[in-house]
Each structure stands twice: as structure tokens, then as C-alpha cells.
Amino acid sequence: MSAHTYSAASGLQHEEPLLFEHAHEAATSISLPGIDADTTHLKDFERRNEAKIPGLSEPEAVRHFVRLSQWNHGIETGFYPLGSCTMKYNPRVNEQVVRLPGLAHAHPDQPQDSLQGLLALLHELQTWLGEISGLPHVTLQPAAGAHGELAGMMMIRAYHDARGDVKRRKVLVPDSAHGTNPASAVLAGLHTVEIKSAANGRIDLAALKANLDDETAALMLTNPNTTGMFESDIREICELVHQAGGLVYGDGANLNALVGIARPGDMGIDCLHINVHKTFSTPHGGGGPGAGPVAVNDLLAPFLPVPRIEKHEDNYQIVHTGEQSIGAVFGSIGQTGVLLRATAYIAAFGRNHLHKIAEDAVLNANYVLARLKEAYHVPFPGLCKHECLLTDAYQERHGVKTLDIAKRLIDLGMHPMTVYFPLIVHGAMLIEPTETEAKETLDSFCDAMLEIAAQCETGDTSELHDAPRRPIRRRMDETQAARSPVLVWPQD
Amino acid sequence: MRFLPHTEHDRKSMLDTIGMRDMRDLFADIPSEFHLPEGSLQLPDALCEADIVRKFTKAAERNRHAGNTRCFLGGGTYHHFVPAVVDYVISRGEFLTAYTPYQPEIAQGTLQTLFEFQTMVARLLNMEVANASMYDAATAVAEAALMSKRITRKSRTVIAASVNPRYREVTRNYLSQQQGETVEVSCNGFTTDISALIDAIDDQTACVIVQYPDFYGSLYDLSPLREACDANKCLMVVAFSDASAFGLIEPPGSFGADIVCGSGQALGIPMGFGGPHIGLFACRQKHVRQMPGRLCGMTQDSDDKRGFVLTLSTREQHIRREKATSNICSNQGLMCTANACYMTLMGDAGLKQIARRSAAALQQLISALPTHVLAAAGTHYNETVLSFADTNTRDGFLNTARERDIFAGIPLEHIERGSDANHLLVATTEMIGEQDVADYLAALEATR
């Protein structure tokens, strides 16, 4: 058994009050630039009451937020095998380069000839994402994966409408899909029909056929799907949808399994969003920002959002109009700082190394699966891609559930896997190690999982039900939080 | 490859455990017709770290930026000062490299920060609750319009033409996917025409959307709008683009707004060529179950210690799927941390000073304009429209100013398509000093 590191148990743990509980009067720690003149002309419009934003001096503010940061587990702190989230190492050099003043302090409405360096980098990313996905036309505008889905579904709807095929409003969504898929389709004014998965966790071709008709706008497909399995019938799936007059939308959340190995565009996917905060390693930031560029084939190219970046000889231009464009879905050209980090990540791998991302990601998932498949129930046996799916079926016999296993992992020094997703499997545990984890880390995770499974067999499971014991807080009362929500600190 | 820890020996031994010989066997389930020959993608060869730095430095140095010019550009993005502490805090790996806080026991840092953020946003806007962010101001306005339709079960949306054209376009594009009419109410001059808006509201109207200060920086009396909304049972939605205003200016919540949404970029986030910024979104407590986006709530752990969790997730896509209030999943989490840290450093007094200085710079500029340039009438916060005799005069000035390292304004028609090409949208912040204003005025004189 290898040594564990404990995520929240090293060094001192400080309790840190809320800002609003710091006792003394508000202080302002900033010395400000600019013009300190009167603004009597605004007198009629001034606030009557203070906002009660509690100021802290700079040393106090730093300590407050550093202490809070220490209550977090991040990818830099330890293993983070969240399935479908691709929590890989975020290179520090990417943080450095996006802070260069010529990038960080550029205004979106500067004259375009003063932005050529920036536009060149973004245009390069557009081109690279087109090449990597096999779908040559790219918008960088969507702010996140779900936002890319919305843009994609709006384009697909516009495509059908432009052909006068206005009754195509039905979107087929496998029951294993991410929740964003149906939500995005509905936001684009479409309605969804759920397709039941086959017993092997993949698309049921018969169920697909039965639901395809002349009202079908699209199939939304995640490949590899959320059980970690590749849809090997992909060619036939795409052909069936196309024959029925529909298009195939690819949810690129799982692109890490394919990058540099195979291209969704070559398989018949018409439209794909790419979560650069997953595949191309831009940091998740505790929830965002991400970016969800969308790559499309020639059919959908006329409908791409604007503004877009185009290259004319050696000059880069921001183009604001497109006759059939769905228009803007975001207030600027995109989440530039996020996109630039992705550019740097792809540049670091390049033509010669890019496929190694998928290779090591898939190797790591299959290695974890190989080590755990005796101790845990594997609902869909066989080769997996970048993530592997287990369930708590064996442990449940001893009264131990997925949630207990997840919380016990916290005590053993790592972030839990994704739990209870995909919904098609009871007690799902979806494990995505990513390519940036060493064998030693994978082994300590597998050892921890095996230890938990062994503990279940002994019958002494109190350590599991009580978990987590080590972090600064224990299991939270989420029912109370939702029943009478307290979302802001009350005014004094 | 420096981000990949395995040695060839590791790979071999792991393949052995799996029962495979070759890395390519890992992809046996992908039909062979789709396998790319190794190295066949049209991408440049890998760059080492030093060459990445060189590449980006070279590109960055081709740009002008607010650091080596005097930036009078606004239109939704503002060059306010960002204290070093803000960037330090959001660079900490524990904040930077964490996921959405689904496991609250090991994400209390993010969660408490979100709770503080929500509280400060609500207080700044004088609203009851705020969520944990939208992508940007434009999508926040669009979501506010959709939320209003859910709450009122009415289908018509009224939006003032003095709302930032980019917010309007995104809102129009979101709404055009749904049933219902969207009506734009034009404005008179560079301000908001409240009486025309009031006339446009009817009993089928779900919400009326205005911006305050409006797209032209204009301040006006919001209070008549509340009465008109009450009379027609429609919601009052107020957008904003520079949150720094509310350190000094009475916020929309004080006028009874139902939803207030806009950009938090001014609060500690660099302009970054348009992103990542943040959409702030606040509403009344009674509407919280129709709100889009993540919410952080206070609760207790099993030892009765106070803690925080993501809550009301039955609104969200991962639970409700096609019935969710929004499709949003990833948001602008780290930017919440930036906003929270910024507001903590400033406090009420600092925020007021930022607003005063931002407004004072504009006042100093427009009070000394030469006679051939007209500033928009009315009271403006830190943004206004300057009008020239014609396009040539304006563009001549822009060029002269640029030679003097001044980005003097945004040609209005670049954002407000179709407007006359003799206007400049001009914004100031605390980053504009006396000398910058003097140089701006001198450039105007020089192109008389």
C-alpha cells in the first residue's frame, strides 16, 4: 500500500470568517490614480445608502483569500479524476503568456491594425481546431461547452429553415447524454426525444431508426459516449441520420479520447463544439471560465455566428456580417484569454505529439479499469476510451453506496470521480484520469479504491459512512440549503 | 513531452496489466478507416516552452494596448485599474485549477468566496439575491428576458434602443428561437426615452429592458418605469455595462428593478480583448427558483459547522435536462473570485472613489471641449458621445490622437450599425489623468 497524501490535512487549518464578520470598520487599502475632482453634476443621481461592501486592508485581504484557497482541492493539489470533466494539468507558462500586456490590456474595439498580433493568434487557433476536428469552419465565440451547443443547434435550425424544411424541430438525444444537450436544444426552440441506450451502453440502432423521420433536425451525439465507450457504429449512425435529412451534432466534451488519433468530421459529424477547458487544458477556475468553439462542415459554414476573424493576405480582419449567419451569441469575439491558453497548449504538442494526449489518456483509463474490474462492477465490459465506468453494485450488498465511496476517497487524499452520472447506470462512478497523471498517482488511486472495496467485505464500514473526516468540513446538509435558501449574508 | 509523466517503461508495464501489446490497440474500437496516420495533421511541430514564450511575446508586441496608450474606449469594456492582489489570488492553483464545487467538503474556499461574491453583488446593485455569474453582460440580458417570460408566462419583450447594441443583438438572437415578439423602442438623441418605453408596454409584455447608465453613459430618472411595469404586471429589467458606477450612483435595485444584470469586468478584470469577463445577475428572492445559473447557499455540515454548497440545482440542466431554467453549466467562476477580491480591497469608500474619478475625468474633458465638437446633452457617468461635423473631421482627429498615443474613442457606427459616421463613443476611468485629458483636448484643437 503506497503512502497517501491528505488533501486538506497538511499544515495548519485556519477557520476564516466571512468578510462581513471581520469586526473592524471598513478600510480601503488602495491608493488610486486619476483625477480627484468634485462630481457635483452627479449629485441628483448619487446613492443615498452605502452598499456596505466591507473593505479590508491589503494584508488582511490577502490572508482572507489565501486561507480560503487552502480549503480547496485543485488539480495542482492532487488527483482529480472527475469523469467527463478532463481535469488535466494546466501549464503555468500559459498563465504567463496570456498576461502579456499586449494581450491582457487590448480593448475589443481598438483599431484592427493595432491588434494584428492578437488576431493572428486567434486565427491560428481557428485553423488548428478545424484541422484537429476535421470540420474546417470554426467560430471562437461560444463562452462554454453548453453555449457552443446552443450555437450549434441554432445553426442546424437555421440550415433547415433556409432550405424551407421548417418542420424539422425534433432533436434525438441518447439517454446517456450530458444534461446540457437537451437543455441547449430547447433553448434553440427545438424539442427533444430521448433514445434509449442498448444493453452494451451504446446507441441502439433500432431505436434510432424508429425515431428518425422528416421532422428530425438532428441527433446530438457524444463520442466516446458518457459510459466511456466509443460508438463503433459511428459511420452507420451518421448515415442513418443524414438519410433521414437530419444532421449530426457532436458533443466534444470527450474529445480528449480522440485528439490526434481520429477526427469527428471524418466520421460524418456535421458540427462539433470543443471544450477547450477540457481537451486543451485551460484551467477550470472553480466553475469557469471555459470556451466552447464550434467547428462545422461546409453545409453549416454560412450559418456561423459573427463576428469572425478572417485572413486576407497578411491582414487579419474582424468580420461582423454574414448573410445567413445566426448572428452573435456573445458580447465579444470570444473568451480570448481562455482561447489563447488553448493556442499555447496545442502549440506545445504540435503535429508530432498531439496524438500522445489521447494515447496516454486512454491508456490511463484502461489501466485503472484493469486494476479495478474485479473489485467493482463494470456495467459495460471491454475497451474504454479516456474514462471508465464502474458502479457500486458489489458494495451496495454491504450497505455502501457510491456516495460513501466518493467521500472516503476525500479522506484518502483525492478528489472523487463523477458520481451518479451517466443516469442510465445505477450508482455510477465515472473515472477520468487524463494523460497528465503519473502511474504512481494512478496506483495510489487504485490502491485506495481496492482498500475501500476490501473494507466493504469485512463488514466494518463505519469509516465509509462517516467520511469525510479529514477536510475542514464534513457532509453538508444540502436539503436544508435548498429548502430555505440563504444566498446572501443578511445586512447588519 | 513535458506534460506527460509516463516513461516508455511505464507505458509498457501498464499495457501488460491491461493485456495489450501496443498503444494502438487502445483504439481498436475505432474503425481503422478513421485512424489518422501519425503526424499527418497540418499543424506546426511542437514548440518548447521558451519558443512558446517567444511566439506569444512577438505577437503581443505587435499590438497596441491600454498599457502603452491612453485608452478612452468603452462600449461595454473599460480600462480600470486591477490591483496586483486580485491577479495573485486568482492565480493561486487552489482557485485556478479547481472544478465546479460539486464536492463541497473540499471546495469550501470556492464556495465561501462565491457566497461573499453573491452578497457583495446584491449589495452593490441593491438587490435581494445574485447568482454565481453568467458568461457576460449580453448573455445575462438574454437570460433575463427568458426568465421574465417564464415568470410572467407572457411572450412580448420590450427593449430600449439605448441598451448596448451587442446586448440587444444577443438577446434578439436568443429570443428569436422562442415564441413571442421583441419590440425595440428607439431613443431620442443619446439618451433613453422613458415615456416612449412606457407607451410600448402592454398587458402582453413580459419585461421591459433598459440600461442604466445607458449605452451612451446617460443617467435618467428610472422611477416612472416601475409604475408602468406595475400597471401592466410586467418585469423591469435593468442592464449595465460598467459596474463601477454603483459605487457612487443609485443602483437600479433602489428603483424597484426585478432583474438587474450586466458586466462585472470593471471590478478587477483586465479588458483582455473581450474576455473572459463576467455577467452579473441579480433578482428578487421570490423569483429565485426561475433564475438561471449556479447559486451558492449557506448550510451546516454534520458537525453543525457552517458551510456552503451549490443549491437549488433542481433548476439546472444536470437534473432537469430539457426542463431546466437555462443550459448554462460552466460559468465565469474564477471571475467571481476576481470581483470578490477587488470589492474587498476597495470597500464602499474605494468603490466610491473609483466612480468619482471615472466620472470626474469625463466631466473635465467635456467641460473644456472646443466649439467644433459637441458632447451629448444630459448627465453622463463616465461615457458619452462626441459629435463632429463629418466623418473626415472625426477620423482626422482619431489619427492625430493615435499618433499621440491616445485611443480617443470608438466610432459609434462600429457598435451601433447604421448610425451616422460622425460620432465617437468616449469613456473615461480612474486611469485617465489630468495630462491625458489635456493631451486629448490638444489633439482636438490640432484638428480643428
Question: How would you portray this structure in words?
Answer:
- The complex is a heterodimer of chains A (492) and B (448).
- Chain A is of the alpha/beta class and 492 residues long.
- Helix content of chain A is 34%, strand content 10%.
- Chain A contains 16 helices and twelve strands.
- Chain A has helices at 58-69, 92-98, 101-104, 116-133, 145-162, 180-187, 205-211, 234-243, 264-267, 336-353, 355-372, 393-396, 402-411, 439-458, 462-465, 478-483; strands spanning 137-139, 170-174, 191-195, 216-222, 247-251, 271-273, 294-296, 308-312, 315-319, 388-391, 418-419, 428-431.
- Chain A has a seven-stranded mixed β-sheet with strand order 1-7-6-5-4-2-3, sandwiched between helices.
- In chain A, helix 5 packs across helix 6.
- Chain B is an alpha/beta fold and 448 residues long.
- In chain B, 37% of the residues lie in helices and 15% in strands.
- Chain B is built from 14 helices and 17 strands.
- In chain B, the strands form five sheets. In chain B, strands 2-9-8-7-5-3-4 form a seven-stranded mixed β-sheet, sandwiched between helices. Chain B has a four-stranded antiparallel β-sheet with strand order 12-14-17-16.
- In chain B, strand 3 (156-160), helix 7 and strand 4 form a beta-alpha-beta unit.
- In chain B, helix 6 (137-152) packs across helix 7 (165-175) and helix 8 runs parallel beside helix 9.
- The longest helix of chain B has 34 residues, at 333-366.
- Chain B is globular, with a radius of gyration of 25 Å.
- Chain B starts with 7 loop residues before the first helix and ends with a helix.
- The model of chain B has no long low-confidence stretch (mean pLDDT 97).
Labels describing this entry:
heterodimer, A: 492 residues, alpha/beta, Aspartate Aminotransferase, domain 2, Aspartate Aminotransferase, domain 1, globular, B: 448 residues, four-stranded antiparallel beta sheet, 14 helices, 17 strands
